[in-house]
Design brief:
There is one protein chain. The chain contains three helices and 14 strands. It is an alpha+beta fold and 274 residues long. Helix 1 packs antiparallel against helix 2. The longest helix is centred in the N-terminal third of the chain and has 32 residues. The protein is elongated.
């Protein structure tokens, strides 16, 4: 003031170092899975719709698989051959004890039985590749009945974000579009393109605080996972991607977001307190 008196006091305080920008929410593509069938076939049933939350192992769809049918037919045939070879070996073993057979017949029957045993084990393993359990395989053998229905489970827990599966549609391994796309939405991406002059300040693992207009009172936290290696020559901006925790599954892909990234440790400096 004119008399030279201080209007406030000096105090040492910590000042945050941060940058702010805007961006958009997107799915965490590191936790996004396109679910295909491993074998071709016709879709029989599709069990979930877009937006449904599912758990790992839930059956997404079933297909009528000619390959599974062939594998089960081979299993039944190999089991029949093995049983025949076991009976043959038992018979020639009894005959040689009674003097009615030669040792070479026993050796040949033993070799045939071992070959049949190997073929049978290979056929069981082939059925397991299709997802059949030992109990299901035993039931096929007991009932002597094949079932060409192949179930396709979800490899992760998450949310259905795309569905192209419908009964009657033919599906091929890796043939797009995938019958289902599942995303783990416990974390989401926040993607921003920051101005060139701020680019040197951003580093991987920096803490991020995000707000979205849909939840103005909520603060979502995460960390920087990717800093672009180049500056766009047209916009003179750099990609900064962050992984945001979203345990309540509130965020949606495409949402507008504003964020604050802590770019350094707080700086202690003098401040005038009124």
């Amino acid at each position: 003031n004119p008399d030279g008196d201080l209007v406030g006091s000096l105090e040492s305080r910590d000042f945050e170092l941060f940058k702010t920008a805007v961006g958009t929410i997107d799915f965490n593509e590191n936790m996004l899975v396109q679910v295909f069938t491993q074998y071709p076939g016709k879709i029989i049933k599709a069990f979930f719709n877009v937006g449904d939350d599912i758990k790992q192992g839930d059956v997404l769809f079933t297909i009528d698989s000619p390959d599974l049918l062939q594998a089960e037919s081979t299993l039944l045939a190999s089991a029949g051959v093995l049983e025949l070879q076991k009976r043959t070996l038992a018979r020639v073993t009894q005959l040689i004890k009674a003097g009615g057979s030669a040792q070479k017949d026993v050796d040949q029957a033993t070799s045939d039985q071992q070959t049949a045993e190997g073929n049978y084990k290979a056929a069981r393993n082939a059925a397991r590749v299709f997802g059949k359990t030992d109990a299901e395989i035993d039931r096929i053998l007991d009932e002597r009945k094949v079932d060409s229905t192949l179930v396709v489970p979800s490899p992760i827990s998450g949310r259905i974000i795309a569905r192209n599966a419908a009964p009657g549609f033919l599906t091929q391994p890796g043939s797009t579009p995938a019958p289902y796309t599942v995303a783990d939405v416990s974390t989401m991406w926040m993607i921003a393109n920051v101005i060139e002059t701020d680019a040197p300040a951003y580093k991987v693992k920096q803490e991020v605080e995000v707000k979205v207009p849909a939840y103005p009172d909520r603060l979502f936290k995460g960390h920087v996972t990717t800093v672009g290696a180049t500056i766009d020559p047209t916009t003179h901006r750099q990609l900064v991607r962050s992984e945001i925790d979203d345990p309540e599954h509130l965020l949606r892909s495409g949402m507008f977001a504003s964020f604050k990234i802590h770019v350094g440790e707080p700086i202690r400096s003098l401040a005038v307190l009124a």
